[in-house]
Design brief:
- It is a single chain.
- This protein has 318 residues and is mostly helical.
- It has one domain.
- Helices cover 72% and strands 0% of the residues.
- Helix 1 packs antiparallel against helix 2, helix 2 packs across helix 3 and helix 6 runs antiparallel to helix 7.
Length: 318
């Protein structure tokens, strides 16, 4: 008999729980398709099933990355940042004078950030983009001599680099933290973040569909309601507290951490929705069936990840 380490058992239990939820969701979707839609096209049910199918693929990809450890997770989130940045830049107003700054963003800032995380150089990857890249980007744009809408163009590239690379890169950066008594189990920190934040999104959707009446920000995101927000965040906070056994936290610490990242995830989604409305689009792309683009699936992670990382770094790392 193969003996698994406590970390391996915990990881299997987490993925087993997620798989169980997806099996239940798939069964419900199939039942609804048969009993309600009678096998015919149905916009709501078909959208639900496409979302569940996409979740199966995403969980499988994350599971494969986890199997390869630190290298697999860094490569996965490097690719996620690349496609997210491509979606963001494709919706931004750019001109010929932006070619050099965009090249810097994709071919220097992006790989440089993940390389610094790989070698665990916190002192540099914490400021590499918000200091050095932010200063170099407008310099390159200015050298081109194109001043038309200069501030708007430069700030959009800077903002894209910030949310798509700097913020998202804090997910694999969790692997660099040295938490006493939790050595070798940092992948579980990522699992906790993803399960709680994404769970909050799903639960907000469910609570909103069941009880939602009062809109939070109808001009930004008509589907977000106060009932969905309160019910979803409260449920996800309880979920986070229930997962304390997979973290270095006790139950109340896990609940506080879950509440914090759920709220940041909600506000992150609201900000990204505002950007989409500004650009006149509903979704960032169509990469993930039922979910839109990469940024549509990650909008809540963008704001939650750096807050989660630094809360851990300054509360739990000596």
């Amino acid at each position: 008999m193969i003996e698994l380490s406590p970390f391996a058992w915990t990881t299997l239990k987490l993925f087993g729980g997620v798989a169980g939820v997806l099996v239940l969701a798939s069964a419900i979707g199939a039942l609804l398709k048969w009993r309600v839609a009678h096998g015919q096209p149905h916009s709501v049910i078909d959208n639900l099933n496409s979302r569940v199918n996409a979740w199966w693929v995403m969980v499988a990809v994350i599971g494969i990355a986890f199997a390869f450890g630190k290298g697999g997770v860094i490569v996965l989130f490097y690719l996620i940042s690349f496609y997210a940045l491509r979606e963001f830049i494709s919706l931004a107003y750019t001109r010929r004078g932006d070619h050099a700054p965009i090249a810097l963003a994709f071919y220097l800032a992006l790989p440089g950030q993940y390389f610094l995380i790989w070698i665990d150089w916190y002192g540099l990857y914490a400021i590499y983009i918000p200091v050095y890249a932010f200063l170099l980007l407008p310099i390159l744009a200015a050298v081109s001599g194109d001043t038309r809408r200069f501030l708007e163009r430069t700030s959009k590239i800077q903002w894209g680099l910030m949310v798509c690379v700097f913020c998202i890169s804090h997910v694999p950066a969790l692997l660099t933290l040295q938490i006493p008594g939790f050595e070798g189990r940092n992948l579980l920190l990522i699992a906790f973040l993803v399960i709680v934040v994404q769970g909050s999104d799903v639960l907000q959707y469910v609570w909103g569909k069941l009880f939602g009446k009062r809109k939070v920000a109808p001009e930004l995101s008509p589907s977000k309601t106060w009932e969905g927000l309160i019910g979803g965040v409260a449920s996800a906070t309880a979920l986070g507290a229930a997962l304390y056994w997979a973290t270095p936290f006790n139950p109340w610490q896990a609940a506080l951490m879950a509440l914090t990242i759920c709220l940041m995830g909600f506000f992150g989604g609201l900000v990204m929705s505002a950007i989409k409305r500004d650009r006149g689009v509903k979704d960032w792309g169509s990469m993930i069936e039922g979910h839109g683009g990469m940024l549509d699936r990650l909008d809540s992670v963008i704001f939650a990840a750096p807050i989660y990382f630094h809360a851990l770094r300054y509360w739990w790392v000596p």
